[in-house]
Amino acid sequence: ICEVDSSRDSESEESEEESPADTSTIGIFSRRFQLSVPKLTSRRRVVQELLSDLLRVSHSLFSDSFFPVLEPVIGVGSACEGWSPHKEEDVVYCMFVPLKPPHGYAFHLEPDTMQEMPQSMRVRVELVCTCTREQPDQKMLCFLHHSQEELQRNQVASLLHTLCTGPYLDGEKIALWFQTFVISAWSVVPQSRHYSMRVIPSSRSCKMKLMRASGRSFFVELVFSVQQGDSDIFLSSQPAEALLPPSTTWLESCAVAEAKFFKHVSMQAPAHSCHLKCLRLCARLLEGSGLPIYALKTTVMHLLTSIPLSEWQHKYLLMRVDDIMCYLRCCLEEKRLRHFFFGNEDMPKEISLPPAFQGAQPLNLFQYLAKDPVAQTKALGEFDKL
C-alpha cells in the first residue's frame, strides 16, 4: 500500500519542465507553484527503510513480551500519495504502524458511546488462555491461569497494566513507549551513520526530525493504528486537529484506503497523468482560503472516478484544474460534498471497506456550512477571490 508509484509523475514533470513548453501557461504554472516534487519518492524509500530497520529491532526486543506486535508500516497522506502541497522542507512523511495483539490477548473494537464525535471507537483488550498453545514446550505464562506470585516472580508485565487505561488500549501510553524505544534503539540502526535524529514531543504519535550533516532535514510521523477486520479502514491514535478526545478514544481513518486508491489510479492512468500535479496546483491556489485540503482531495477522488483516466493526460491539466475548481464551487453553493468512502457506488473493487461503509448514506463534509449560513457566505467569497 505504501509503495504509491509517483516516479512516473516525477520523471515526466522533470522532462516537461525542461522542454520548450516552459513558455506555455502550463510551464508558467509549474514554475510559479513549484509543482515538481521529485524527491518525494526517494525520501519515502529512505523513510520506509528506516522504519523497517526500527521494527526489526523492536521485534528482537519484544518478541517474548506482552507489548503489541508492530506490523509493517503503511505510507499515508499526501507525501506518500505523491502530491504533497507543502514546500520540500515542510513535507511530513506520515506512516501508519498497525498494532496486533500479542500472544495471550485479543483486541475488540467497540463504539465509544461516551463521545459525540462520529466514528470514535475504543479498543478493548481481553486476556486469552495460552495454556494450550501449539508449542507446549515453549515456556509462556498464562495471565488467566497462573498465579500472581508466579507472574511477579518472573517479572512478566501485562499489557493491561502497561499500555492500557482500564481494559482499553491507550494511545498516549503507546506513543510514550514507542518514543522511548526509538531513542534507545537509534544507535543500532544503519541510518544513524548518515542522519542525526530528534524525537519531537507528541502525545499520541511519534514524530521525528531527521537531519544530515549538510543541514538538510525532513520529518516523519508514526501514527499507531488498529485495522478493522480485513478492510482498508483503520482506527488511528492521532486525533484530528482541534479535537482532543480521551487517550482511549481511537478515530476511524480512511487514510490507508486513500493511499490505496491513489496507487490504483497510478497503475491505471496514462504514463503522463496530471492528476497529482492538479492536486498540488489546486492546493497552492487554495492556500489561505480556509477551505480544507481534504475537501480538495475528496473532490479530485470523485472526479477521478467520473472523468475517464485517459482525459487526465498532461495536456489536459488546465482543463482538469478548471473541473476541480468548478466542482468545488458547486459543492460550496449546495453546501454538500459527499464523503468518498461512504455509500459510493463508484468505489474501485480493489478498495476493501467494512459492510457498514458500503451501505451507509454518504456523509456530507460540508455539513458545517449547511448549519452556518454566515460561514458559507464567507467561504464562497474567499473562493471567488481565487
Automatic annotation (TrEMBL):
Domain annotation Mab-21-like HhH/H2TH-like: ranges: 291-347
SMART domains in alphabetical order: Mab-21
Keywords annotated in UniProt: Membrane, Signal, Transmembrane, Transmembrane helix
Biased composition (Acidic residues): 11-20
Lineage: Eukaryota, Metazoa, Chordata, Craniata, Vertebrata
Pfam families: Mab-21_C
Chain intervals for the UniProt region annotation (Disordered): 1-23
Protein name, entry field: IPIL1 protein
Its membrane topology: Single-pass type I membrane protein
Residue ranges, compositional bias (Basic and acidic residues): 1-10
Main location as per UniProt: membrane
Annotated localization: Membrane
One Gene Ontology cellular component annotation held by this UniProt entry: membrane
Keyword flag Transmembrane: yes
UniProt xrefs under InterPro entries: ITPRIP-like, Mab-21_HhH/H2TH-like, MAB21L/cGLR
Family from the record: Belongs to the ITPRIP family.
